[in-house]
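pasting for ref. prot 1 ->
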Amino acid sequence: MIVHGFAGIGWSEALPPGTDEIGLELDWAACRTRIAAGHRTIQCDVTQYPTWPFKGRITGKIDSPPCPPFSKSGNGKGSHDLPLIHQAIEDLSRGKDTRAPLGAACQDPRSILTAEPMRWHYDLEPQWITMEQVPSVLPVWEQYAGILGRWGYSTATGVLDAADYGLPQNRRRAVLIASRVQAVALPAPTHGGPGQPPLATMADAIGWGYTRRPAPTITGGGVATGGAEPFGNGTRQGMRNAIGTPRWADRGIPSLTPTVAECARLQGFRPGLAFHGRKGQQHLIAGNAVPVPLAAAVLAAAGIQAPALATAA
């Protein structure tokens, strides 16, 4: 069984069909989206959910904790909270739960959620682990890797750009891969290199764009259970925006806002995947997800063979 914390929808869509996975997710619209897509889901606060029901049953653990304290469009308080996060992770790795007092001391109470996966790793010792967050969280993943390495895991950490794996936008993510059953390494790029398909463009994906390069990041803002950095190069920032808007006025190109379906396509989701909730929630669920091609590449590096993906050529 794969246990998926802060579940969203991206990692689940990258898993092979029929995978024994269960997602723990707080947001009701994300839960409805997952269930409608065929993914087992428990609506809950993952920080309050017990680990014991999965004891002896878990094979893999996936996590993408919320990013707003660390993202460029967030409040930036995560960097100030790093010492407290590091302390919570170290304590949890020794069986000491100090999440409550350390979380209360954080400038942003969501920062401590980045330590939550260690509670599960310590209690359940999964065979393999994958995690993802915004690039500024890489030092935290490196701390996890050091602890997991002492426990006998092979580990790899780094910052990957989802464009290198077929996504039609630049999306840089800090990832961690760990395994007790095989050696692991970061996945090699599949696009843009010699003998590989070219980097996908927005034009390939949704008919926008005027250059042969990946589109700027334009996906949605952070939510309580979100994962992805909301805005990037060439976009109008704003935490309240459900989705960014490319600014190409200098090229005489009008600003455009993608539909939910276009946003989903830019994230690598399969055609026809239904997103639930209000329109803004749908944008957030699609935009906050781990890009499916990147998730598939990371899972494959952990030893999980993902299905073939229909990414833009």
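and prot 2 ->
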Amino acid sequence: MSYPEPRYLGEKGEINAMFRSADQEAELTSGTGNRTHYLATHASTGGEFGLYKVDLGPQSPGPSTHFHRAISESFFVLSGQVDLYNGQEWITAGAGDFLHVPVGGLHAFKNQHDDPASMIMLFTPGAPREEYFEKVAEMAQRGGEEFGEFLVKHDSYFVPDEPITPMT
């Protein structure tokens, strides 16, 4: 395997780094104590990846088992315990634990513990996940064909035998 073809062809480099302070407020907060920080969106990375910090409140349900056809998803636990489903079994992951789910891989996550947890989620290539995070609970309440179209638009395919549980 080799490096990709060069995309920057200049001679001197550019000043184009992005910095985000750790004390910046989350872009999305829910009533269940969950917060989502948009660290690097598909727009800010030119579609290369999307990187999000997700804080889960105690006893926080996550999405039910699903897969993606176009993007991979990775999880890195920063603090607390997060229950990760790897397609075969639930794993209680703690700080420093990592799960990579390739395209098509079944997965889910939740915090069924009494303490909050925090993790990093990485999507590659980058996709407009922000609209998904912001509207999935509302769309799930609406249900029906509109919700189904919303899920397909956001590359989220839930396992038919399980009820769909969006992250709220």
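The longest strand covers residues 72-79.
The two ends are 40 Å apart (CA to CA).
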